[in-house]
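Every protein is a chain of amino acids, and every chain bends into a shape of its own. The fold becomes a row of whole numbers, each drawn from a learned catalogue of backbone shapes. The protein below has been through that process, and both of its lines are reproduced in full.
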Amino acid sequence: MPKSILEVHGIGLTTAKTLAENGIKTASDLAGKTINQVAALKGFSSIRAKQVITAARALIAVDSQERIEEKKKPTAKSTDKKKKKEIVMKEKESKKLKKAKKTVKAAGKLKKEKKKKKEKKEKKKKQKKATKKGKK
């Protein structure tokens, strides 16, 4: 079952509505778009587009990993080769999952840093205005 667009980190009701109006109704739909395609939509910059696309892709990767783990159950007929292959596959999937989680985390940090810079800039503007008022 496809993941809802609302399960993607950074997507709320208003954004989900905007995306749905543009044919993006699931996390898979969003993950399949390019940054430029999403950035062209109302309310999206290229930075935000990259963040939500990355989050959608990570959500899909986590969901896929969980499904794989559910399906994999040891059988009495497993041979050593099968076991080795299974271990290697689990390690590969685990690495992909970790990478996806790091990417989502990095996107969140980027957003926080941008917000801090904006707040600093606004604070400096206020200080400048206060200084100008004090001189008059």
In short: The chain has one domain: 5-129.
